[in-house]
């Protein structure tokens, strides 16, 4: 299996299959991330499509193929921010709630514990959706995507110190929001 850098070099040389492999490798992960950023599965799909269209048109401009992942995420976040600026943000956690509903249907002996866990997850997702954009971005990238601070800083084009600061404030705001909701 080829790594990202080799696939990028192949794509830059005109290999359409390499482009397809790059898209296939990241589409699901990027889609899930954009759902959290945008708050709507439909709009996240739009952002994802725009991201890959831009990737296809600009992959020749990527000078360091080793940084493909952060380059792609930066494109996606920029597309998401443009979409957010062009309209009033809406928050939809219906997608997550439908997933939780399927999980609740399972009648295990610890059903009460599962219901409490599902309710807490719903509250956390709702609280994340209410965070201001810079804080929501770092929480999603760190806690949901499990990216390190340096990668987050590259994607968001900010310093590592800014990532740490935003993450601290985001976690604090989430703790406060969850305490209030409970």
Task: Write a short abstract of this structure.
The chain is mainly α and 182 residues long.
Pick out its properties.
mainly alpha, 182 residues, 78% helix, 2 domains, 9 helices, elongated, Arc Repressor Mutant, subunit A
Give the helices and strands, then pairings.
Elements: H1 4-12, H2 16-38, H3 41-58, H4 68-86, H5 94-104, H6 111-130, H7 133-144, H8 149-156, H9 160-181
Helix pairs in contact: 1-2, 2-3, 2-4, 3-4, 4-8, 5-6, 6-9, 7-9, 8-9
Describe this structure in words.
By secondary structure, this protein is mostly helical. The protein has 2 domains: 4-86, Rna Polymerase Sigma Factor, Chain: A (Orthogonal Bundle); 111-181, Orthogonal Bundle (Arc Repressor Mutant, subunit A), CATH 1.10.10. Helices cover 78% and strands 0% of the residues. It contains 9 helices and no strands. It has helices spanning 4-12, 16-38, 41-58, 68-86, 94-104, 111-130, 133-144, 149-156, 160-181. α2 packs across α4, α5 (94-104) runs antiparallel to α6 (111-130) and α7 (133-144) packs across α9. The model is unreliable at 89-96 and 98-107 (pLDDT under 50).
Assembly state here?
A: single chain
Q: What percent of the residues sit in helical stretches (DSSP H or I)?
A: over 70%
The computed structural class is mainly alpha
Beta content: under 5%
């Amino acid at each position: 299996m080829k790594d990202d850098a080799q696939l990028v070099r192949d794509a830059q040389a005109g290999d359409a299959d390499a482009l397809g492999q790059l898209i296939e490798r990241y589409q699901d992960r990027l889609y899930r991330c954009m759902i959290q950023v945008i708050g709507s599965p439909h709009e996240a799909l739009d952002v994802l499509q725009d991201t890959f269209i831009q990737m296809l048109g600009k992959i020749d401009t990527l000078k360091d193929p080793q940084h493909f992942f952060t380059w792609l995420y930066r494109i996606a976040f920029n597309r998401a921010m443009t979409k957010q600026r062009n309209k009033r943000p809406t928050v939809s956690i219906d997608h997550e709630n439908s997933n939780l509903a399927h999980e609740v249907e399972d009648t295990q002996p610890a059903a009460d514990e599962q219901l409490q866990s599902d309710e807490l997850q719903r509250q956390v997702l709702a609280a994340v959706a209410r965070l201001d954009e810079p804080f929501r971005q770092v929480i999603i990238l760190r806690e949901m995507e499990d990216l390190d601070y340096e990668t987050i800083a590259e994607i968001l084009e900010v310093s590592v110190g800014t990532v740490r600061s935003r993450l601290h404030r985001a976690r604090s705001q989430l703790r406060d929001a969850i305490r209030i909701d409970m």
